[in-house]
Design a protein that fits this description.
By secondary structure, the chain is mainly α. It has four helices and no strands.
């Protein structure tokens, strides 16, 4: 009979690297909001998770996090360059 609080059943399944998940979330959210902050975080989390992928799962998510982080940073640079060349963004609401 199993004792209460025995974690043998919980630890038998494969676990995904938490840094890979955090990097993927930062990369996805960074496409829409705060790309200059979340993009580098996604790159860092993904790179650290790639180094740890031999010990834990999540290599694919880590690669996706790095790629999305790079896309976030490039998107931010493009938006800033467009804003600088056109005199800035204007937020016109209404008719």
């Amino acid at each position: 009979m199993s004792a209460y609080g025995n974690s043998s059943a919980a630890s038998s399944g494969s676990r995904t690297n938490g840094l890979a998940i955090a990097g993927l979330v930062c990369g996805i959210v960074g496409v829409f909001f705060l790309s200059i902050i979340l993009g580098p975080l996604a790159i860092i989390f993904g790179a650290v998770a790639l180094r740890q992928k031999t010990a834990r799962g999540g290599g694919g998510m880590a690669k996706a996090a790095v790629i999305l982080g790079i896309v976030d940073v490039i998107l931010f640079i493009v938006l800033i360059s467009v804003a600088a060349s056109s005199g800035g963004f204007t937020w016109y609401i209404g008719g």
